[in-house]
Write a structure and sequence with these properties.
- The chain is mainly beta.
- It has one helix and eight strands, in the order αββββββββ.
- The strands form two sheets. A four-stranded antiparallel beta sheet has the order 1-8-3-6, with no helix packed on it. A four-stranded antiparallel beta sheet has the order 2-7-4-5, with no helix packed on it.
- The relative contact order is 0.28.
Length: 118
């Protein structure tokens, strides 16, 4: 198979390199799980931040409650109507400064389960 040549058109003789990952089994296999946190519906009535352990480089956040959660990572607190949404049953992976993401329950039943990887 030919090698990709940057600056040239992508075609059969110059294929674009692609890596296919099958979710967490591949994406997280090279790093270690180093911590866990749960934010309950009671806590999420107020804005909450992640509490990553030392060495954490990635946080996998899953909404396992009964309502949606809003989040922001720009230093502004989310509200029940403003911010990015993690719907009930969905998840999101955070990288970078893990102390920045802030979360707020849209309703009264969200539960966030968070795994940290380093």
């Amino acid at each position: 198979m030919p090698n990709f040549k940057p600056g040239e058109d992508v075609d059969d003789n110059n294929p674009l390199p692609v890596v296919i990952a099958d979710g967490m089994s591949t994406a997280y296999s090279a790093i270690d799980a180093i911590g866990y946190q749960q934010l309950t519906s009671v806590q999420l009535q107020q804005v909450q931040h992640l509490s990553p352990p030392a060495g954490a480089m990635r946080a996998y956040v899953q909404n396992n409650g009964g309502s949606n959660v809003r989040w922001r990572d720009d230093g502004t607190a989310p509200t029940v109507s403003i911010g990015m949404r993690i719907e009930n049953g969905d998840d999101h992976t955070f990288t970078g400064d893990l102390t920045l993401p802030a979360f707020k329950d849209e309703g009264a039943n969200a539960v966030l389960d968070i795994s940290y990887y380093g």
